[in-house]
Amino acid sequence: MRLAVTGGKGGVGKTTVAAHAHRILGWDAVDLDVTAPNLHLYLDCEEVERRRVHLLGPKVDPDSCTLCGECARACPAGALIVGRSWDFDPDLCHGCGLCVRVCPRGALDYVEIEIGEVREYRVRDTGSRLRSGRLNVGDRRSRHLVNHLLDRLEGDEILLDTPAGAGKEVYDALRAADAALVVTQPTPAAYRDLRRLLRVVRAADLPHVVLINMADVSERWTERIEREVDAPTLRAPRVDDPLESDELRDAVRAALDEL
Ligand code: SF4
Ligand code: SF4
Q1: CATH number among 3.40.50.300, 3.90.180.10, 1.20.1290.10, 3.40.50.620, domain 2-53+122-258
Q2: Residues having CB within 6 Å of any atom of ligand 1
Q3: How many other CB atoms are there within 10 angstroms of residue 224's CB atom?
Q4: How many helices and strands (H and E) does the chain possess?
Q5: Distances in Å between the alpha carbon of 12 and those of 6, 187, 219?
Q6: Which of 99, 101, 111 should be mutated for ligand 1, with most atoms under 8 A from CB?
Q7: Which residue has the CA at smallest separation from atom 1 of ligand 2?
Q8: Position 156 confidence tier, pLDDT thresholds 50, 70, 90
């Protein structure tokens, strides 16, 4: 099974839960939270490899470009806008190279564009492997880096620590999984995020359970989540040292058993 641990926006304890799940299962793990990867900080691990990640994309020579717009008309992804200037949206480009081929002036080059890196760790206590994506600061191509990692998944027993939020890269991560452990907290903001995230989980058609972390912080919101969420829910208590807590580990184990 490939298991996704997901949790809407940050701060609900997703990574702590992912660390407990990793220790319980002992599977390889992939940290897909590429704008703020931190699962390696929660595990006893050593870095064994670091690789830069590049995408192919167009680069314009402004002295040669006449702003004729041929490239923008040819681009199947709508990634180019040519008017008074030549503009490129790297989020949309999928690197087909068509724009370079149609340019009558030879003003475009097809170049490697670095978007980030993948670090690989060996987890000491389980002997398993953790791969962690890290997007360059300021780069917006998180979905490309997430899919770079997803395209290279090996084996069937993998833990996926998804990106935060409920965006397209979260959907991509969930589509690569067989089940999801959804982490939330009993607060109005977390509940709003949870509802958005559950729509994505259902769109990915995944069996899932909801773990209400720090459930004792608000009985009212915990009960509301239990009442309104159309999925099995479990409670985890507020604890002083979440990473070392037996109570939290037992709650995560119960959620895994439910899946
Ligand atoms: S490489 Fe393909 S997708 Fe990217 S800008 Fe050029 S035509 Fe569009
Ligand atoms: S096709 Fe070439 S010359 Fe025309 S706008 Fe695109 S880059 Fe510029």
Answers
A1: 3.40.50.300
A2: 57-58, 74-75, 77, 79-80, 93-99
A3: 14
A4: 9, 11
A5: 10, 10, 16
A6: 99
A7: 103
A8: confident
